[in-house]
Design a protein that fits this description.
Layout: H1 3-30, H2 35-57, H3 59-71, H4 74-99, H5 105-127, H6 129-141, H7 146-160, E1 162-165, H8 167-172, H9 174-180, E2 187-191, H10 192-202, H11 207-225, E3 230-234, H12 244-255, E4 259-261, H13 264-272, E5 277-279, H14 280-286, E6 296-304, E7 311-314, E8 320-324, E9 333-344, E10 347-354, H15 356-362
Parallel strand pairs: 1-2, 1-4, 2-3, 4-5, 8-10
Antiparallel strand pairs: 6-7, 6-9, 7-8, 9-10
Helix pairs in contact: 1-2, 4-5, 6-7, 9-11, 10-11
Length: 363
């Protein structure tokens, strides 16, 4: 038996009693002999009204309120409650002076003060929630001497920013190393539907997908164990949407936070809807070493290239270097001179030729 059905029965009984009372009063007013008839008719009508309307007055508003609170970030909810309490305290302090106003103003002003200051408190604290969290974290870390300020600033950054994680970026695995370095200040938020998708991949009958899913589970476990990373798994959800990518975009817009992903399609959809996207592939390309034509590189040529006499080597960051006439030095470390740098959709590619020192030594 559901809670809504129980409330329907209670509402039906309450409205039936009220209807019987009102019917009896009307019956005695107009025709005393028909009081019982009026009571029965109004009681049946009240029971029907109670059966229909009770959920809209009890369970459904509470369900909507719970859904709204579930979508709110913890920092926003804390700021709103603190602002409400502050506004009510101010209204209580002003209630006595306002009640001394002449005529009807003395009766209405305290009530209006509660509404006005409660609203102002919530609005102001939500607008300045970042500063409030910063002050609280500084006070909390202030007792640690010189290190307290630094720790407080770090705590403020972590509390002040939420980053949504996509399934692809968890499976990728690089997020654990990046987060541990401190380049992602904030709370890494993983909604329950993302965790469910990750578990579905880990239980896939396909061996490769199952291996990738289990690696994602291990990465998530390592993130939770890292004391320098704040990870939060939340039951927050988006009603009426089934696709995980669409849920992430809507959730990011509601929470006003970025999405961390490697998914190209999610990246494009999020950007079109005004959601900030953090892409690890773009980060990896951005932090690769910058080389210019004419620079010398010391690399190991490990294999043949596609063209005749070409050799292929790799820099420490994984950038491929195509060496002209490099076939003769395969398996050796040699100095090469950069001739051209190309940026492709797959990444950056460097073309080079063997340095003059190597030719001189051969001679």
């Amino acid at each position: 038996m559901s809670i809504e059905f129980i409330f329907r029965l209670i509402g039906m009984a309450v409205f039936a009693v009220l209807g019987a009372y009102m019917g009896g009063q009307l019956g005695e007013l107009y025709n005393g002999s028909a009081a019982a008839t009026y009571g029965v008719l109004f009681s049946a009508t009240g029971a029907l009204i109670g059966l229909i309307l009770t959920p809209y007055l009890t369970t459904r508003p509470m369900r909507a309120l719970r859904s709204l609170l579930g979508r709110m970030a913890a920092e926003t909810l804390f700021a709103a409650l603190t602002g409400l309490v502050s506004g009510l305290v101010v209204a209580a302090l002003l209630a006595s002076p306002l009640s001394m106003l002449p005529n009807i103003f003395g009766d209405i002003a305290p009530f209006l003060g509660v509404l006005l200051f409660g609203y102002l408190g919530i609005s102001i604290f939500i607008m300045r929630q970042g500063d409030i969290m910063g002050m609280l974290s500084i006070f909390r870390g202030g007792g640690n001497g010189e290190g307290g300020t630094s720790e407080g600033g770090s705590s403020w950054s972590k509390m002040n920013r939420t980053i949504l994680l996509d399934t692809s970026v968890i499976i990728d695995g690089r997020i654990a190393d990046i987060a541990s370095t401190g380049f992602l200040p904030g709370t890494l938020l993983i909604p329950r539907f993302v965790l469910n998708e990750l578990q579905y991949v880990a239980d896939s009958p396909d061996g490769l997908r199952r291996q990738r899913g289990r690696r994602g589970m291990e990465v998530l476990s390592n993130l939770q164990k890292d004391p320098n990373v704040m990870v939060r798994i939340s039951d927050i959800d988006v009603d009426g949407i089934r696709e995980v990518d669409s849920k992430l975009v809507v959730l990011a817009r509601q929470l006003k936070c970025p999405v961390l992903t490697n998914d190209y399609n999610l990246n494009r959809v999020a950007e079109l809807q005004g959601v900030t996207v953090l892409n690890i592939n773009e980060l990896a390309n951005a932090v690769k070493s910058v080389v210019l034509p004419g620079e010398l590189l010391h690399i190991n040529v490990i294999q043949e290239g596609k063209e005749r006499d070409q050799g292929v080597g790799y820099m420490e960051d994984g950038t491929m270097v195509v060496v002209e006439n490099g076939r003769e030095v395969i398996g050796e470390y040699t100095d090469v001179s950069v001739t051209k740098v190309l940026q492709t959709a797959a990444g950056r590619m460097i073309f080079a030729r063997i340095g003059e020192n190597h030719h001189a030594n051969n001679k």
